[in-house]
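DM from R.C. (forwarded with permission)

"hey, sorry to bug you on a friday — could you get me a structure for this? deadline for the figure draft is monday and I only need the backbone to look sensible"
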Amino acid sequence: MRRWAGRAARARPAGFSLLELLLAAALGVLTTAALAQLFVSNARATALQTGQARLQESARLALHFLADSARSAGYFGCGPANLADGLGGTWRGDPLHDLTMPVAGADDAGHADEARSWGLGNRELKPGSDIVLLRRIEGLGHDLAQPYHAAGDLVLASSFAPEPGQLTVLSACGQLGVLGIETIARPSGRVTLAGSVDIDALAPAGFAYGDSAGPAATVLATVVSEVYFVARGRFVNNRGDPTWSLWRKAGRADEVVSGIDDLQVLYGIDPTPNDADLAPRRYVTGDGIGAGIVRAVYFRVTASSVDAVGEEDRPLAQTVSQTVALRNPRVPI
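My reply, with the result:
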């Protein structure tokens, strides 16, 4: 019995030694640290990929907006050749309304006075960035229900609701009439011209818009002047830092693409528009357009990931560019 009791006592487990406990704890710490490092690395890789995708999408969207507006710039209907100015030239020289400038811009426009002169209010513009204006008429315009002349009524065949003070034109094949609208009656579509409109200048004696004996395909349309610029965005990034965005002003200013840090624009000028060569001869900044005919516009956009995701804990950045040929390179008025 004593022999079996001794064997039973020796067979009972003696537990872990202190050395074994320390070794197990060290292995646990190393395993936890490795898992934590793997988690952090995966999180950084995911954030980096998300940031890269975001900046690429921002750059693509910014160029899409700019190129789409540039392709339509200068479209004022059925090839107007003569100007019938019913407003006495009050719109001339104003970059927001001057019809003779379908494309305009300002270089290095990050100043408060530039924001005011372009009707951008108190927006904080990005220093060193450019402003570009691209002008056209809205859509295809609204057809006349009957010919319009100085002694007649201006009646539309469809509904039309321009914003108060918006510049409006009668676009015919061979004539572009500049006018202002006071009201449009419903449902007849009868237009009441603003008191400032000179009817004799808008519709000279013997001339009728939409008359079968004169210019056909006359439409009434509003003038759209889209101003693109880079200004302070509405949000902050993951570090609490303010961000920059691409804005578009067409009546009101809207933030169209976030994460745009810079916009640079050059204009392809054709100094000899009457020859057979329609390619631009040189590229200038917005301040150098002058009386030149703009054939193409070069856009360079710097986009960012907005959030700090890079190895240096800063937002990623990428610069892309595109040159857009104008479909309507000039307004012959």
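R.C.: lifesaver. The mean pLDDT is 83.
me: no worries. The first helix runs from residue 2 to 11.
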